[in-house]
């Protein structure tokens, strides 16, 4: 079935049909362009989504949890998904859009040629039909004129009144008209034969060829749409395995979450190394002398208000400031952290320094090899250019080794500090219930009971986040007004507290500064290496010892210093 034989008389309809077909192809191209824009926008929004939910710098510490790690892996898979959507968009642009554009341009040009050729054939046939019509009209006129001339001659020949000359004239006119009629007849016959031949060739050969060419173009367009639709699906199918792997990665990320492991990491992060406080011993007031009773009463009042720790400076109370900045440290040796956290920080710092030393050593070795090569072959380079870099590398390496040795010393001293059997509050409760813990220069402790009863040793030099500025921890210098009660009671308690505080703070021993200390926070005081100070409050498990020194200007300077920076000798 071909258009040339079946649709020989549908030239105009075929022209309209082929035009609509190309318009439909352009419509499909616009559909692909809109889809491409959607894919591109979707990929961009996926990437923006993954970027917006990337862990912030302040959240880096939480990256050790499996749930956070899984979420980071999900974000990576989302990025990969966005990449695949970009691949789809790019493939649609290169394989489909460009193909449709090229095909549409080719079809328009070929259709224009076919229609131009068809129009020419139609005009040529119309011209021949017009010539045939003129020849027919001329023949009809000549034939009528010849018939009339014959009639006039016959009448003249039968009319006896006409002369011989007039009859001869009618005869000549008749002969001329008959000749004109014959000539017109021959011309009409020739035009008719020519028209029939052209018409037969037009409808059997020339115009079917044009129609068949239009059919080929239309079939090419239809076949192209089929290929483009399949191609678009193939583009999607080509990335489907990668998208499936992305989804599998998300599933694996979800399956990697381990709630027990996260719980263990929470313990590792926040474990202080302290043990819960022991039971508070019963105080039998009937067996104590009045002075002990008064001190016990004072301590009991204090134990109900263990909220804020302070020091006496310039004859007034300074509160420890800060919040629960759990296990944060601003000290080089992390001495203000609990034992477990301090060891972890020191071990992490040592590992970091060892890694830097390894990197710097590799860089130094590379520079040394380069210098040897330059010395062996000066054309490759000047060895003096490497000398400066080599000296700088040696300097960095030496500094790193010094830092490593320093932190290894910190870790060694941290490992030698005995673990507390009770929390800081327990230590203070024991102190407030009539016990005094004496610390000797070797780091051991003695628990002296005024009644002479032996008590278990639960002291020790500990480091904690309860620095003077942190506000974490308690002592017998806590303000009494922090508990429940009326404002009048609190005011009276504070006045009595100030007076009692000044009377009770008797030196417990002396200490010598092992290292210099710069006071950077409220409540602490500086000290020089080798300086001897009075100990007026021992370390209560928070890593700080309360000391004072004689000041010629205003009497006494009093404050807290790190326990790990001093060597204490307490009175027996």
Automatic annotation (TrEMBL):
SMART domains: FCH, SH3. Residues 1-262 form the F-BAR domain. One of its GO terms (biological process) is signal transduction. The keyword Coiled coil applies. Keywords: Cell membrane, Coiled coil, Cytoplasm, Endocytosis, Membrane, SH3 domain. Residues 122-201 form a coiled coil. Residues 336-413 form the REM-1 domain. Its main location: membrane. Residues 291-301, 418-432, 476-487 have a biased composition (Polar residues). The keyword Cell cycle does not apply. Residues 447-457 have a biased composition (Acidic residues). GO terms for cellular component: cytoplasm; plasma membrane. Residues 458-475 have a biased composition (Low complexity). InterPro entries: AH/BAR_dom_sf, F_BAR_dom, FCH_dom, HR1_rho-bd, HR1_rpt_sf, HR1_TOCA, SH3-like_dom_sf, SH3_domain. It is found in: Cell membrane; Cytoplasm. Residues 506-571 form the SH3 domain. Residues 275-301, 416-491 are annotated as: Disordered. Belongs to the FNBP1 family. This is Formin-binding protein 1-like isoform X15. The gene is LOC119632105.
